[in-house]
Write a structure and sequence with these properties.
The protein has two domains: about 5-195, inorganic pyrophosphatase (n-terminal core); about 200-315, Diaminopimelate Epimerase, Chain A, domain 1, CATH 3.10.310.30. About 40% of the residues lie in helices and about 20% in strands. The chain is built from twelve helices and twelve strands. The strands form two sheets. The chain has a six-stranded parallel sheet. It has a six-stranded mixed sheet with strand order 7-8-9-10-12-11, with helices on both faces. A hairpin with a 2-residue loop joins strand 9 (about 255-265) and strand 10.
Length: about 325
């Protein structure tokens, strides 16, 4: 039976030129899946370019690349454009969204609610990560999950599963990870490269952010916030804020964690995480964002304080009756 997955497999085999794009400000799944697919296509002898509006974050600069990662779109459109880990076109950046053509496009994603904006759409919310989906394609195309390819797929999976600790970790996820390790991945060296990337400025920022952490609704919701002044004072970047939301989720009794970062006086970047049954995707979606049940995000055209008040008001509706 023909499915989007089998159709994409045939296109990867039969096509000649590809552009791979993932959401701006890429995390390990966005960049890992992009690089993994580029490795697959390079192994198949294809012409490939990886595009990301934000480029490669410093903490992932060690990743082995089979081709350039560009932050400007090429003048000549390739035969196929493949969008990864992007629940909607806007996540790919303004330039990409404005020039996008549905014809000759592929959308590979695992976000529930993806509007299937491409000509061919493979959306699997049961997958732990897009990297896992790319790893499955590689196996079906008989491309070994070794060296840079295996490392990129593993990066994507550990990012979106919290090092295999979240509820989206499935037996298939673990089997794929095991096959990569069996193929030669040094897990200890990999984790050292991924995790030992802190700077002193990040440590100082984290200390200041922890001082602003708060609990709400009898300890069920935790918030943490970063202002532009905090970034300036510590010499930090937005990349240094990435793990704050996961830190406060570890507080005993917390069901949902919210981090807020001031991008401009009237624009706030929000990340939401959940432990257990709280659906942070529903909270995010109500305000125009998206994501997964246990991990979601949104940008709000509000000051940090106004965004925080709105999020707490919205989150209270999703707590069990009588607990808000």
């Amino acid at each position: 039976m023909t499915t989007p997955r089998t159709t994409i497999k045939d296109i990867l085999s039969g096509g000649s030129s590809f552009l791979i794009a993932a959401h701006e400000n890429p995390d390990g799944d966005a960049l890992g899946s992009s690089v993994a697919l580029a490795h697959v296509l390079t192994e198949l002898g294809k012409d490939v370019i990886v595009y990301n509006a934000s480029g490669i974050p410093d903490y992932l600069s060690w990743l082995s690349l089979p081709c350039p990662v560009v932050h400007e779109l090429p003048e000549m459109r390739p035969e196929w454009v493949i969008c990864l880990d992007s629940g909607d076109l806007d996540r790919l950046g303004d330039e990409f969204a404005e020039s996008f053509s549905r014809r000759g496009s592929i959308n590979i994603d695992h976000h529930l609610g993806n509007p299937e904006y491409a000509e061919i759409n493979w959306v699997d919310p049961s997958a732990s990560s897009v990297g896992e989906m790319i790893g499955q394609l590689a196996q079906e195309l008989d491309v070994p999950l070794v060296d840079g390819l295996g490392e990129a797929v593993y990066l994507a999976m550990v990012t979106d599963t919290g090092h295999f600790s979240y509820g989206n970790t499935s037996p298939d996820t673990m089997r794929l990870a095991a096959s990569i390790i069996e193929s030669g991945l040094d897990v200890g060296a990999f984790n050292a490269r991924l995790q030992n990337q802190w700077t002193l400025s990040r440590l100082h920022l984290t200390s200041k952010a922890y001082e602003r952490a708060e609990l709400h609704f009898a300890g069920q919701i935790a918030t943490i916030e970063v202002t532009q002044a905090m970034l300036d004072e510590t010499g930090s970047t937005r990349e240094d804020c990435g793990d704050l939301v996961n830190s406060i989720r570890r507080i005993r009794g917390v069901k949902g964690a919210i981090s807020l970062r001031e991008e401009r006086p009237s624009l706030t970047k929000v990340s939401l995480r959940a432990a257990g049954e709280l659906d942070v995707r529903a909270i995010s979606a109500e305000l125009g964002g998206g994501g997964h049940k246990n991990a979601a995000g949104i940008k709000l055209n509000l000051s940090l304080e106004d965004a925080k008040a709105l999020l707490l008001e919205t989150a209270s509706k999703y707590l069990p009756d009588g607990e808000a």
